[in-house]
Amino acid sequence: MSTIRLGDEAPNFTAKSTEGEINFHEWLGDSWGILFSHPADYTPVCTTELGTVAKYKDEFDKRNVKVVALSVDGLDSHKGWVLDINETQNTTVNFPIIADEDHKVSELYDMIHPNANNKLTVRSVFVVDPDKKVKLIITYPASTGRNFDELLRVIDSLQLTAYHKVATPANWKSGDDCVVSPSIESKDIPDIFPKGYTEIKPYLRMTPQPDSK
């Protein structure tokens, strides 16, 4: 069983999906990616999750994020389930769902937790950057649906902090002030952050979001 940590390269795999065979790294290309698992097809919480993701496609596209789901059931089951998702969630599933009947991908990403269930995946989420590095890992129990607004918020933070020398404080959302990286000396802040900054403590300095208009 693999142990994946932040900063590791996301393991590559080739698998069948509802949109054809996928080589994960090739499919991602230069995009960010979300890989998220579902305990099984035709389950109520998963049905609402996949419907929500389909409705959020424009938000993911704006952030150059590709989304791929996974379930341990087969393609025929997936295809029937997609019809149910479209009907009950009033949407159209617009991303691939991996068929992982042999648990190959689930085991590669440690998505099966025996103390929860020794056959079905927990609700794992992996966010991967364009360099194929794992930037976020969240694991939910099967009984708790994911908050995709929170995933968008985290992706906004990951993308901002990847390109600017800031961190994001508690409950931050896009447009809020950011924390100046501790590695930057106060004397250098005006050149790096022309919008200015506020020093609350020498180690706690806030600046407007660098890329906001």
Automatic annotation (TrEMBL):
It comes from the Bacteria. The keyword Repressor does not apply. One of its GO terms (cellular component) is cytosol. Residues 4-160 form the Thioredoxin domain. SUPFAM superfamilies: Thioredoxin-like. It holds the Pfam family AhpC-TSA. The active site is at C46. GO terms for molecular function: peroxiredoxin activity. One of its GO terms (biological process) is cell redox homeostasis. Keywords: Antioxidant, Oxidoreductase, Peroxidase, Redox-active center. Belongs to the peroxiredoxin family. Prx6 subfamily. This is Alkyl hydroperoxide reductase subunit AhpC. It comes from Formosa algae.
